[in-house]
Predict the structure.
Amino acid sequence: MNLVKFADVIDVNPHRKLEKGELSPYVPMANLVEGKRTIQDIDFREYKNSGSKFINGDTLLARITPCLENGKTAFVNKLKGNQVAHGSTEFIVLRGKAGITDNLFVYYLIRSTNFRNIAIKSMTGSSGRQRVQISAIENYEFELPSLEEQKRIAHILGALDDKIELNQRMNETLEEIARAIFKSWFVDFDPVRAKMAGKPHPLPDEVMALFPDRLVESELGMIPKGWEVGKLGEEFKVVMGQSPPGSSYNEEGKGISFFQGRTDFGFRYPNKRVFCTEPKRFAEVGDTLISVRAPVGDINMAIERCCIGRGVAAVKHKSGRNSYTYYSMMDLNRKFKIFEAEGTVFGSIGKNEFNSLSIIVPSHMLIKIFEKYIEPNDEMILNNDINNEDINDIRNSLSTFWFED
């Protein structure tokens, strides 16, 4: 290996050509997800002669706080052909020099703790608007392996990320299926409408027999006969979080996992980052976690018993059915968002407002059958998530071996 200076082997903000007014792919900061390699969505916008420009093979590094600290770094690989994209002015664009540095290796170098620490320490500016100093990056020195070894390292780490992304896509599909079933049964009342129209429905006869054959008026509009309109607090147990003393917070794993708000929410389960030794309120395994302070309505599920702060509520249906609770809260998200919009400065929803939300109450037997249908999907999501944690640990260990002092 050779000790090299960053700017000698990696291009920083390389020149890309785009004409003002040209319609091209656009990536805002919001489309970079913390800790994920791939850009989630790419829009199209008119280029206004400002912002970053990049092509496939480039790495995007968020230069502003807290995006950098939160891990917003992505590898560009979704553009078509020779497309030039543009994006946030807060991206630093990085690319390996041809014949010297492998592009994917650059991405994993940028994600390394050593590099990130240098970048974070270089940040200057007013509180909340601090930015990385380009000169600190350009002068960063590190051990560069041969090009062949770089490609081997990038291939191994990339294969692990590929598996993580495959599991994530599978989980997204599994959740979409479950949400579609919930909507069909409990929102659109498709089985009831099929009965009313005398049309066949793919559900087994014994399940169809549990659905009424007509709709009736209610304060929430037309609902299946025999179902009721109730209050959320009557059907679900709601625990509003209470923040423990700040002196008990730590990131060393002491005590119990602690979630103050939606900051650490993942796709389904929150990421364990902050812990506390003096917990006040708890969420139990399988409880649905809901952000009750700005932004209101974001949803996750507790993978273990944890402490919840004042920005989070824990919810569970009185029957104890976790999947039904989770998808019910997902469906109620539109109601939660009203409290976000009505907030004066920061939206929030209190326990009384939460408990008083009007909801449709189906039969207990249908809730039980729904849980039976959906539980295998949610078990697969859990297993994929656990598998991803294991893969992530392996990837991080290898990254530490290759990139850290």
Remarks:
- The chain has twelve helices and 23 strands.
- The first helix runs from residue 6 to 9.
- Residues 296 and 338 are 9 Å apart (CA to CA).
